[in-house]
Amino acid sequence: MSRHAARDNSLLIRDIGTLAAVPPGPLTGERMQTWPLLHDAALLVRDGRIAWFGPAHKTPPDEGIATLSAAGGTVIPGLIDPHTHIPFVGDRSAEFIRRVAGETYLQILEAGGGIRVTMQAVRAASVDDLVAANLPRLRRMLAGGVVRVECKSGYGLAPEPELRQLEAVRELARRQPVRLHATYLAAHAVPPEFDGRPDAYLDLVADPALLADIARRGLAEFCDVFCDRGAFTVAQARRVLERARAAGLRPRLHADELARIGATQLAGELAALSADHLEHIDDAGIAALRAAGTVAVVLPGTSFFLGIPHADARRLIAAGLPVALATDYNPGSCMIESLAWIMSIAVCQLRLQPAEVLAACTANAAAALGVQSRAGALAVGYDADLVLLDVPTLDAWLYEPGRPHVRAVLVGGRTVWEMRPDD
Ligand SMILES: [Zn+2]
Question: How far does residue 83's CA lie from ligand 1's centre (Å)?
Fold first, then answer.
């Protein structure tokens, strides 16, 4: 490549007050918080990737290169949300208020409310409807510094509308800069037409030919099952995920959220990429995840939204598991799209240190999506997905829950979102 062309694809970020040099994940134990913070730093992007970073006074000479000033602020790897239920439509605010008044998630579910309300809305929605409703959500997440998001089906609850949700994810990926990863979650709930016949429903939505078609068309990378009390059993989840794995869809699992039924052991047994929720995990579950190298994805927004106890993230970290954080953004149990808000809950209520929280939302979240060799870290050769914050340190950032501090977001070295001067 000529020097001129190389210069056109290069960008120097200078005046970095603090550079959060999170190393590639998965990070465990002390390594979640002992990674380096560089002060008075600079970072060079070339062809969409991180080419160099270090102390400002050692910046490689490259006259004429485009520059971007971080104005003394903090630069972090772009945030990754490895568990959302985008794309969804429909309004469940009335149910939320009923829950606040005392009804439980299971009571609402058993009375025909809950997920079936969203199912009806999604079944009635076209791909265009799903895209139109979820594009603004992704735009707001980007403005919050999120550059990569996992998106699940699981509200169609029949082959055709499930695939429509996955097609909407593909279209959303084309229409905006946040990088998306799709998960097939037809085994989210039993639809009314299969009441009392969960195995017949699973035979339909986990038909090997259907799973092979989803994988072949690249509509999903992963398969997930809601394996819990009131949802699918361990035996049912095993059947779905073994078939999915044979078709080329990597397993992940909703586990130990409402009750401990052995879902976490199953996640370990299947070497799932992640086991998510884990409010009720025990030592055997922890051992199973550790042996398999499965990422523990903690979803404190859900506990906050439902008013139930949090997963014990400190215990998971102490046990040597790579812990990631995610929003679990969904219309029933966590209508919170802000990963920054989840990070604040993690600091204030899970007692995580700011460095651990950032590792959980970058390096370990990338590992939960299987992209840790190119994303989620500040390392040479990695995607130049970066966030510029208007605070001098991570501590100052997480000290102010609810206040936006993102000044600019870069994806592949390109500025895709910027705070307007009057914001
Ligand atoms: Zn979920």
Answer: 6
- Give residue 36's Cα distance to chain centre: 24
Q: Break the chain into its structural domains and give their ranges.
A: 3-78+376-418, 80-368
Residue closest to 149 by CA, chosen among 129, 134, 132: 134
Domain topology for 80-368 = TIM Barrel (3.20.20)
How many A from CA of 52 to the centre of ligand 1? 37
| Separation CA 17–CA 56 (nearest Å) | 10
Q: How far is the CA of 342 from the centre of ligand 1 (A)?
A: 14
CA 248 to ligand 1 center in whole angstroms: 21
Please give the distance, rounded to the nearest whole angstrom, from the Cα atom of residue 84 to the centre of ligand 1: 6
Using the mean position of ligand 1's atoms as its centre, give its distance from the Cα of residue 253 in Å: 9
CA gyration radius for the chain?
A: 21
Ligand 1 midpoint to CA 372 (Å): 21
Distance 3 CA to ligand 1 centre (A): 48
Residues ≥6 apart with Cβ < 8 Å to 157: 119, 123, 186, 188, 189, 190, 191, 201, 205
Please give the CATH topology (third level) of the domain spanning 3-78+376-418: Urease, subunit C; domain 1 (2.30.40)
Print pLDDT tens along the chain (423 aa): 333 344 568 999 999 999 999 999 999 999 999 999 999 999 999 999 999 999 999 998 877 799 999 999 999 999 999 999 999 999 999 899 888 899 887 788 777 678 999 999 999 999 999 999 999 999 999 999 999 999 999 999 999 999 999 999 999 999 999 999 999 999 999 999 999 999 999 999 999 999 999 999 999 999 999 999 989 999 999 999 999 999 999 999 999 998 999 999 999 999 999 999 999 999 999 999 999 999 999 999 999 998 889 999 999 999 999 999 999 999 999 999 999 999 999 999 999 999 999 999 999 999 999 999 999 999 999 999 999 999 999 999 999 999 999 999 999 999 999 998 765
Contact 146, 339 (CB under 8 A): yes
